[in-house]
Amino acid sequence: MNELLALALAFPLVLGALVVVLTTSTRAALFGFFAFGLFLALAWVALEAVDVALTEAAIGGGATGLLLLRLNARLHRKVSLGEPAGPRLRILAGLLAALVALALGGLLLALPEPAPSLAAAVVEPLPALGIGNPVTAVLIAYRALDTLLEIAVLLIAVVGIRVLGADRGWGGRPVPWPTAGPSPALVFLARLLVPAGLVFAIYLFWVGADAPGGKFQASTLVAALWLLAIMAGLAPAPRTGGGWTGIALAIGPLAFIAAGAVGLAATGSFLAWPEPVAKPMIVAVELALAASVVVALVVLVAGPPEPEAGR
Amino acid sequence: MIADLLTLALVLAGATFFLAGTVGLLRFGDPLSRLHALTKADSLGLGLIALGLMPQADSLWMALKLLLVWLLVVAGSTAAGQMLARFHLRREGAADE
User: How far apart, in whole angstroms, are the C-alpha atoms of residue A282 and residue A140?
Assistant: First the structure.
């Protein structure tokens, strides 16, 4: 990569991180975090890791940032970020950080040329799955258990959000987003973006087999579109304990575990993909996972259920 | 050659609009003027940059995708500008009462 471009991307990254750490206002820290996420995604693109860049932009910067922004808005009162650290602690932390950076830089420079790699051995058996994008193939073949546990973590987070809701709100919907009527510009934007975004999400989901993309990025996009429709008053927020919300949340992990059991019966190891039906099985599991991720993200951002005004 | 010159001229013009919009954002006194400077200049600047990159695209589809990106960003930033202005006016109204 061009050194000048690398520097141009690294500088705003460091600046964004400094803003997040040094600012005393939670809102300023959040906007610093958004800018940091954006530049981190650009840096991944520059490193030719487009899959990682898409995930960073969608989940790391976008969804996490939105979650924090929503939290900040719902806290109602100003939250202090605590007493600033004293000079001695600052110097110590700075020294430790510099030490870690130096050690990492030294290790990077000490790498033999060319660096040892298992990439060739890893990629070699992948064509049997019928997936052209090695990142997707590694995630679903070698790291299937990690992918399964990732969705489990999302589910646990959803359970946590529901536990936070008041008893009276159980079975209800989260607080409506716009307290007043939504702005006509927002309604127009939602009407325009939701259909266009859905087409792009389906493309992103499908193209993940052969190019950067995949279910996580596509699901985040669908969740963002759904939230946009909720904010514009065009779609309802998911109801807690509602039948289909629960089904959508459970179907992903259940389908994944079922596929793992099929693998166990057919080949003798859990989450192994039996070769002739590997591709259709993977697509089915990914579709189920996508449904769960969409609902989980929407529930996470929308927040715990609240007692409804009319009930 | 002509395509490269066209790209150079259009992208430079686009960058100038971005610069002007940023200066406006930093220098103008009230929120509505700042918003005006930012959204208008950025929409036009991005349009010029997208237009300037079109001659460099490998295929007609790629060029059309650039156009689509510009249209989507314009829709998004225009709506965001409207919403920010509305929020500002509502808050001013609440402060006056």
Answer: 8
Please tell me whether residue A24 adopts helix, strand or coil conformation. coil
Count the neighbouring beta carbons within 10 Å of the beta carbon of residue A10. Answer: 13
Residue A310 confidence (pLDDT): 45
Q: What's the pLDDT score for residue A311? A: 41
Q: Is B78 at the interface with chain A, CB within 8 A?
A: yes
3-state secondary structure of A170: coil
Helices (H), A57-173: 64-74, 87-110, 119-123, 134-141, 144-164
Question: Of A51, A56, A63, whose CA–CA distance to A296 is shortest?
Answer: A63
Burial class of residue B49 (count of CB atoms within 10 Å of its CB; 0-12, 13-18, 19+)? buried
Longest distance between any two alpha carbons in chain B, whole Å: 62
Distance between B64 CA and the closest CA of chain A, angstroms: 15
Average per-residue pLDDT for chain A: 83
**What is the average pLDDT across A7-24?**
86
Any B CB within 8 A of A234 CB: no
- φ/ψ (deg, to 5) at A16: -60, -45
Residues of A in contact with B78 (CB under 8 A): 185
Q: What is the pTM of this model?
A: 0.82
Among A76, A81, A94, which residue's Cα sits nearest to residue A32? Answer: A81
| Among A303, A304, A287, A123, CA closest to A218 | A287
Model ipTM? 0.79
- For tokens 């609902």, the residue is A295
Q: What is the nearest CA distance from B69 to chain A, expressed in angstroms?
A: 11
End-to-end Cα distance, chain B: 62
Residues in contact with A193: Cβ distance below 8 Å, sequence separation at least 6, in sequence order: A225, A228, B72, B75, B76
**Alpha-carbon dihedral sign for residues A195, A200, A205, A209:** positive
Look up residue A271 and give its DSSP letter.
Answer: T
Closest CA to B39 of B5, B6, B85: B85
